[in-house]
Structures are given as C-alpha cells and as structure tokens.
Amino acid sequence: MLAKRIIPCLDCDLSVSEGRVVKGVRFKEIRYAGVPWELAKRYSDEGADEIVFLDITASHERRETMVHVIEKTAANVFIPLTVGGGIKSTDDIQRILRAGADKISLNTAAIKNPKLVSEGARKFGDQCIVVAVDSKRTGRTKSGHEAFIYGGREPTGLDTLEWVRKVAKLGAGEILLTSMDRDGTKDGYDLELTRTVSEAVSIPVIASGGVGTPQHILEAFTKGKADAALAASIFHYNEYGIREVKEFLFKHHIPVRK
Fold first, then answer.
1. Cα 241 to chain centroid, rounded
2. What is the domain-level CATH number for residue 61?
3. What predicted TM-score, i.e. pTM, was given to this entire model?
4. What's the pLDDT tens digit per position in 45-55?
C-alpha cells in the first residue's frame, strides 16, 4: 500500500507585497497565520510530505500569482510544492513551474476552460496537474454538492461528482477536494463527500476542510478513502505537530513516510 500523505496548506493572501498566510472558517473570518516561506520551511523540516500553496485572492482579483513569493518559498523547502491561484494558461503553468513549483492547482480556470486541464497534462505531465474542487452542499445538483469558483465566492451549477469525473478523464493527476461546509470548523472532514469522490475516480484524492484532530485525519483515510490529507489550522497554530500526527497514524496501522 502506498504511504498516505500529510500536506500542510498555506492559504496565502498575496495582495500585500510580501504575502501572508491566512486561515478562515467556511472561507470567511480570515485571521493571520504567518509568513509563507517561513511556515513552508518549518513544515518541510517537520516531515510534511508536500506543501500546498494557494494564492486565495488571485482569481477573485483577476491577477497573476506573485512569482517572487513562490521562488522564495520553493527555495526553503525540499519536498513537492503545489501552487494554485490565478493560473489561466499553459504559459502561466510554465512560469510557476520555473519559479520552483512541482505541481499546479487549477480551480476557477479549469471550470472556465476545461481544455486547460488536458493541455497542461499533455504538455507538462498529468502528475503535474491538480484540480482543486471547492464543494458545498447546496441541494441544487444531482448529488447535492456543487462546485464553487473564485475562492468560494461564486457557485457554478456544476455537480461536484460530475465535475471530478470529467477532470479525471481530461487528464488531471489528482483531485484536491475541499468541503466548504467544513472548512476551518475543526469538526472533521466531510467523510461522505470524500468517500464518494474517492470511489468515483481512479486518481488520488486529497481530503481538505475541517480537520481538528489526528483522529479526523485517520478517518479521512479509513472512512473517506482519501490518498492524502490536507490541514492548515492545527499546524499553523501549533495545536498538533506533523510528527505527532504521523506517529498517531502509524500506531493505527496507516502507512506513512516517517
């Protein structure tokens, strides 16, 4: 069995000159968490398997991700770095990869232009293309779950399950699935949603949104059938450490990289 991955997430507001890591609740109530490259280095040193860096205001503000912040962050870590936010073309993908990213996360741009997923996978390899899905229970779709764009500000009318199946066929290498209902609540992942998506596609699924304890991460793997677990608050505010989480998972027979 492949090792399960623990992935700290840096939600970054790069509308300020040097950028800052922030965290909210259900995509609102934003609070400061730290400096991007300092947190990234800390997590890399603590044994994180990957880092996800999301410029959460880029798409909404219709601007590009700030390359110098990516470069400074990439220089501080020696594990895979996924970057998302404001990426709209294969030229943008190439620019971010050259800045030091290993993978690209597409959300708004993928929904606006699904061909970008297949073009990116063809040009840079499917392992490089992560499609982020911000999902909310709205009851307006067949599954009840709807995909949102622009940092959770705009509904799309797209059924979450139909969308993840489509991007998997288009060539995405991975799904980053965030439950907007659980985001920042610390009530645990939406296990039903995570399991349903994991069973619907053959590519890896990263569970995101709602983790508050190591038990929640364990449940993402055992009940949610996720391949990786993303977390922010519990690491940013020193509620739990990455090594502590991995030791807990190991004791419960979950394969992790130590």
1. 19
2. 3.20.20.70
3. 0.91
4. 999 999 999 88
Task: Count the domains in the chain.
Answer: 1
Q: CA 18, 149, 126 angle in degrees (round to 5)?
A: 80
| Structure letter (DSSP) for residue 208 | E
Q: Which of 11, 55, 92, 227 is catalytic?
A: 11
Does residue 237 sit in helix, strand or coil?
Answer: coil
- 242: containing domain: 5-251
| 134 belongs to the catalytic site | yes
Is residue 179 within 8 A of residue 191, CB to CB? The reply is no
Q: What is the pLDDT of residues 4-53, one digit of tens each?
A: 999 999 887 654 445 666 655 554 445 555 788 888 999 999 999 999 99
Calculated CA dihedral for residues 80, 14, 45, 213, nearest 10 degrees: -90
The predicted model gives 112-130 an average pLDDT of 98
Please name the residues in contact with 114: beta carbons below 8 A apart, sequence gap of 6 or more. 166, 167, 170
Return the closest-CA partner of residue 70 out of 95, 46, 50. 95
Q: Which residue, among 182, 175, 187, has the nearest Cα to 216 in the 3D structure?
A: 187
Catalytic residue among 55, 92, 126, 134: 134
Does residue 126 carry a catalytic annotation? no
In a domain, 256, yes or no: no
